[in-house]
Specification:
Helix content: over 70%
Distance between the termini: 23 Å
Largest sheet: none
Strand content: under 5%
Number of strands: 0
Structural class: mainly alpha
Oligomer: single chain
Number of helices: 13
Shape: globular
């Protein structure tokens, strides 16, 4: 298992997917850390220049836009790590070594999880450092804030991994890499709209509000809040764990039955 994960990480690092993901991450990181989107709005006359402010190091990762930037990165990770060699048939080389399909899929999934986790946590920390250098850390520095930042980034990473369940399963079925990327964005839109509709539908029914707390859009925005609603954490944990288990279970079943060229 470990050898396969190392091989997958090495293959990813040498592929075009790695270059695309790193480039997108750097662009999003700089844009987010220096509030370039706000500056663009000012140039277009959409907001007053006096309303532009740089985030400080502590709060830079506690913003709804932080998670949204990975919407443009994760689909390329799925294609590069999960779908590329399946679609090309290159994965058949592993079958000749007597490695079970279940082991291969789990190794690929763990590789994907490792890359997503490393990317989100490292970019969050770098963004915090950049914002601290340009602006400041915050009103006061406490080690508890660093621990809070690390725990939030880690939880957001697991959230992204869990959210990718449906797109990963799609990547096992669909042969086209471009179609996988498009369907990822479609899935993101569907989940976001569903969350908004369900929030309105159950607003008057308190007994049903727990359902909406299980949706990624709802609990991720709460996680990123500086004043986090801790009551949402159990629902986030349940949603993440169930999604990961479902992906491993269903994904293994699909991959085991899939006909490869």
């Amino acid at each position: 298992m470990i050898r396969i994960i190392r091989a997958e990480l090495n293959r990813f690092a040498k592929g075009r997917g790695f270059i695309i993901c790193i480039a997108l991450t750097i662009i999003c990181l700089i844009t987010h850390s220096f509030n370039l989107f706000g500056r663009l709005q000012s140039l277009l006359g959409l907001i007053e220049s006096t309303n532009i402010s740089l985030p400080d190091g502590y709060s830079v990762s506690f913003a709804s836009s932080y998670t949204s930037i990975f919407t443009f990165i994760v689909p390329f990770l799925i294609v590069s790590i999960i779908g590329s060699d399946i679609g090309s048939g290159a994965i058949c080389n592993l079958f000749g070594r007597g490695i079970k399909r279940r082991t291969i899929f789990i190794a690929k999934y763990l590789t994907f999880a490792i890359v997503v986790f490393a990317l989100i946590v490292s970019s969050g920390l770098i963004s915090a450092i950049l914002s601290t250098v340009v602006n400041r850390w915050g009103p006061q520095f406490h080690i508890s804030q660093v621990l809070r930042l690390l725990s939030t980034l880690s939880l957001l990473a697991f959230s992204q991994i869990a959210f990718s369940t449906i797109p990963i399963l799609i990547a096992l079925i669909v042969q086209s890499e471009a179609l996988v990327v498009i369907l990822y964005f479609v899935w993101s839109l569907i989940e976001s709209i569903s969350a908004s509709v369900m929030n309105g539908a159950v607003a008057k029914h308190e007994s049903m509000q727990w359902i909406t707390k299980l949706l990624f859009t709802n609990f991720s925005s709460s996680i990123e809040s500086l004043n986090i609603d801790k009551s949402i954490l159990p629902y986030a944990a349940i949603s993440i764990v169930c999604s990961i288990i479902a992906c491993l279970t269903i994904g293994t079943s699909i991959f085991s039955r899939k006909e490869l060229m």
